[in-house]
Amino acid sequence: MSQQKIDQQRIGLVAGTILVAVAILVGMMVFYIMQRHAENLLRQTLQTSLQNHVDIAQSEIRGGFEKGLTVATRPLLINQIEYANTHSGDNATLTVLTKAAQSFLSTGLTAISLFDAQGKEVAHAGAFLRKPALSVPVSTVGHTQILYSNQFFLRTDVNMVKAGRVVGRVITETPLPTLSSMFKSVERSGKTAELALCASTGANQMQCFPTTLTHHIFTLAKRSPTGAPLPMTHALEGETGFVIAQDYRHQEVVAAYSPVDDLGLGMVLKMDSAELYAPIWSQLRYLLPLIVAMLAIALLLLRWLLTPLVTELVRSEREARAANVRLRDSENRVRMLLDNVDEGIVSISSNGRIELFNPGAERMFNYRSADILGENISILMPEPYRSEHDQYLERYLQTGESHVIGTAREVAAQRSNGETFPMELRVSEFSLDGQRMFIGIMRDITERKATEEKIIHLAHFDALTDLPNRRLVQDRTQQTIAWARRADAQFAVMFIDLDKFKSINDTLGHNVGDQLLQRVAQRLIESLRAEDTVGRQGGDEFIVLLASLSAAEDSAVVAQKILSALSAPFVINGQDLRTGASIGIAVYPQDGEDVETLLKNSDTAMYHAKEAGRSNYQFFAQTMNAAAAERLLLESSLRQAIDRNQLLLHYQPLVNIADGRIVATEALVRWNHPELGLISPARFIPIAEDSGVIIPLGDWVLRRACYQLKQWREQGIPLQRMVVNLSPRQFRQKHLVQTFTQVLKETGVDPHWLGLEVTESVIMENPEEAIGILCELKALGIELSLDDFGTGYSSLSYLKRFPIDKLKIDQSFVRDITTDPDDEGMVAAIIVMAHQLSIRVVAEGVETEAQLAFLRGQGCDEYQGYYFSRPLPADELDTTSVAAC
Ligand SMILES: Nc1nc2c(ncn2[C@@H]2O[C@H](COP(=O)(O)O[C@H]3[C@@H](O)[C@H](n4cnc5c(=O)[nH]c(N)nc54)O[C@@H]3COP(=O)(O)O)[C@@H](O)[C@H]2O)c(=O)[nH]1
């Protein structure tokens, strides 16, 4: 059975039960009211009836007594008796008295006796009751008795008085027929109707005439046989009333009682309760089926009318229950959400009092919900917002003006300990039970703000030195230009580039290089005024803005100060490091009126300072731009040089010192510019390196050199090896090894025929990675040479780890080996050291016999230089002394 059906039945059952209960209750009330009404009616009837009987009995008894009194007060009789008293035996008198007595029988008396003063009967008529079943004295004048012998009689015994003297007495008996018939008539009132007439015979005793019901005479009966007084007891005590009590038969009766005048008699008219209430019960017999029938009809109507209602009720009740469950569920979810979200959620009433404070808010503000509920929301705000809040809220409520409602805002908030913090706040207004309320969703953005500030800082400051970066320097330059334009002032931009930094970085590693840059930054700051700006342009380049200059020449003083500051050694990791700086100065407005020009011109000036011998400064001059322009021209035309076939290779032999035979040739690139003529690689290789053109250029050199080697070999010139230079940028390219493998395969050159020259700086930039790449190249069979050895901070410990075959002593050492003992010693030491590491040594730049002799003497393995041959085109090279493979 479905739940709905069960619910319907349950509601039907409850409604039916209520209906039946109500019907029974109403029935019982109706019955009770009817019973009370009938009871009152019966009581009144019973009491009225009793009163009638009492009145009748009283009147008849009084009537009987009056008759006896009438006889006793007759003057004739009194006189005759008086006479008889004195004339005892006087027959005439006796005859008169007898006739008189007899005459009274016609008045209703049944017997009459006359007595003289001595008590002697002098006349009588009629017959007195001999042995009455009951005689009861009546409280009245004389001796009066009620007698019973199948019917009631009244016997009076009255003195005859004349002039205050008793002259005789008269006894009369009168039947009381009405009283007798009254008892009979009561029998018709009901089967249990009973009229009782009793007289008191002492404290707790009475005697009663035969009752209607039992016809029994109670000569000496107790007034309270069971302890509870009989109804007659009340009557004999002179009370009139109505009682439900037990009678002498121990039956429950409804009785009316009353005394009979002041005759010392009591009368009770009673009826058994059962008989009395019988009509009511009989009514109930009719009423009950009627009620049941009506009830049945009501139930049917109930079912007919109620079923659709109940169905609807059950359905809506189920829906309501389901909705309740959903609501509870939803409330639980909302509660869980409120409890578990990171955001603080706080709601306030329209007077600003806090009404909800979720755990997120507790954590955020460090208040317990229980402590803060009811407080003004301004407690969560720092000054001055705290003082202004109430006014603000009031204004919003009146005008609707708000900067907060509906939009997320960053505001300042305050924790319980007074700490303020940034908070993101979104406030919404809603209405609950007609009340305007506000809910705020809050997020502590302390970390986000710190991160944002960090990001902003990182975006504007150099991570290593914490100096303003390129962008910020440009911004500040822009601002300074705006200020200088307004103030008609001038200022200087200094472009500072460290000397030798690259070598230090390459040889001693990035860590040392970084520390050096930080120290340089520090010294620059210390050399300048607070209003000046020092920033890092990138790498080892710094920019200084000299904010206010009275004369352009003043910047020279500052430049000199910087140069002196930087010339002092830097002690890093226990080592004394020295670096100088080259400074280019451009002055606003004469050297540029915008940021870009000023920076470009200061950079140009810096290059000139470098070219002028480093560790000095140069003011910008317009002529400098010509050199820069040439550099730009070279850079742009270099990109087309490969395609336009403007590049060519010259080859310079490497000669075995021991036998004077060529063991290899070095390929050296040349640029045959259509307008500028043959350009030295010393001019364009750095531009190619800076601009990235070195990658396609290097590929071209490698491929061209390999083809030449292949060609020579095919021509029968048994050249052992072709050597090519590898620039730093080439070395760093991703697929270096694959490129080499590909070109060797393409040109058909055995890797063992190829030699590569790399500089120390190439390797020292990232030694670990470099070792890996060199090992891969070495594994192919390529011979590796370390070029320009001695010019950098050559690290012998690293040298051991490099898979190097040859070491080329830089020509700057070779140049003076015959004249400079330092160089002599240096070259000798390099040769010894290299040999100890099983590395062959090549000396480059050998121009004289003396130089060669020295090198031979030191055990140098090979040499290269003008002494043997300048770099020459392939077809001009003398290959006659090429060593056989
Ligand atoms: N990455 C590449 N670099 C290259 C390539 N071709 C050349 N270069 C590098 O350019 C620099 C200048 O080279 P260059 O002008 O060719 O000078 C070389 C020789 O001509 C010169 N040399 C040789 N012998 C003497 C001598 O007796 N006296 C003297 N004054 N100069 C001499 O030395 C240069 C050889 O340099 P090195 O490579 O160190 O052996 C130079 O650095 C070249 O490396 C290229 O294709 N790629």
Automatic annotation (TrEMBL):
<dbReference type="InterPro" id="IPR001633">
    <property type="entry name" value="EAL_dom"/>
</dbReference>
<dbReference type="GO" id="GO:0006355">
    <property type="term" value="P:regulation of DNA-templated transcription"/>
</dbReference>
<dbReference type="Pfam" id="PF00990">
    <property type="entry name" value="GGDEF"/>
</dbReference>
<dbReference type="Pfam" id="PF00989">
    <property type="entry name" value="PAS"/>
</dbReference>
<dbReference type="InterPro" id="IPR035965">
    <property type="entry name" value="PAS-like_dom_sf"/>
</dbReference>
<feature type="domain" description="GGDEF">
    <location>
        <begin position="489"/>
        <end position="622"/>
    </location>
</feature>
<protein>
    <recommendedName>
        <fullName>Sensor protein FixL</fullName>
    </recommendedName>
</protein>
<keyword id="KW-0808">Transferase</keyword>
<dbReference type="InterPro" id="IPR035919">
    <property type="entry name" value="EAL_sf"/>
</dbReference>
<dbReference type="Pfam" id="PF00563">
    <property type="entry name" value="EAL"/>
</dbReference>
<dbReference type="GO" id="GO:0016301">
    <property type="term" value="F:kinase activity"/>
</dbReference>
<dbReference type="InterPro" id="IPR000700">
    <property type="entry name" value="PAS-assoc_C"/>
</dbReference>
<dbReference type="GO" id="GO:0071732">
    <property type="term" value="P:cellular response to nitric oxide"/>
</dbReference>
<keyword id="KW-1133">Transmembrane helix</keyword>
<dbReference type="InterPro" id="IPR043128">
    <property type="entry name" value="Rev_trsase/Diguanyl_cyclase"/>
</dbReference>
<feature type="transmembrane region" description="Helical">
    <location>
        <begin position="12"/>
        <end position="34"/>
    </location>
</feature>
<feature type="domain" description="PAS">
    <location>
        <begin position="330"/>
        <end position="400"/>
    </location>
</feature>
<keyword id="KW-0547">Nucleotide-binding</keyword>
<dbReference type="InterPro" id="IPR013767">
    <property type="entry name" value="PAS_fold"/>
</dbReference>
<dbReference type="InterPro" id="IPR052155">
    <property type="entry name" value="Biofilm_reg_signaling"/>
</dbReference>
<dbReference type="InterPro" id="IPR000014">
    <property type="entry name" value="PAS"/>
</dbReference>
<dbReference type="InterPro" id="IPR029787">
    <property type="entry name" value="Nucleotide_cyclase"/>
</dbReference>
<keyword id="KW-0812">Transmembrane</keyword>
<dbReference type="InterPro" id="IPR000160">
    <property type="entry name" value="GGDEF_dom"/>
</dbReference>
<comment type="function">
    <text>Putative oxygen sensor; modulates the activity of FixJ, a transcriptional activator of nitrogen fixation fixK gene. FixL probably acts as a kinase that phosphorylates FixJ.</text>
</comment>
<dbReference type="GO" id="GO:0071111">
    <property type="term" value="F:cyclic-guanylate-specific phosphodiesterase activity"/>
</dbReference>
<keyword id="KW-0418">Kinase</keyword>
<dbReference type="GO" id="GO:0005524">
    <property type="term" value="F:ATP binding"/>
</dbReference>
<keyword id="KW-0472">Membrane</keyword>
<keyword id="KW-0067">ATP-binding</keyword>
<feature type="domain" description="PAC">
    <location>
        <begin position="407"/>
        <end position="457"/>
    </location>
</feature>
<feature type="domain" description="EAL">
    <location>
        <begin position="631"/>
        <end position="885"/>
    </location>
</feature>
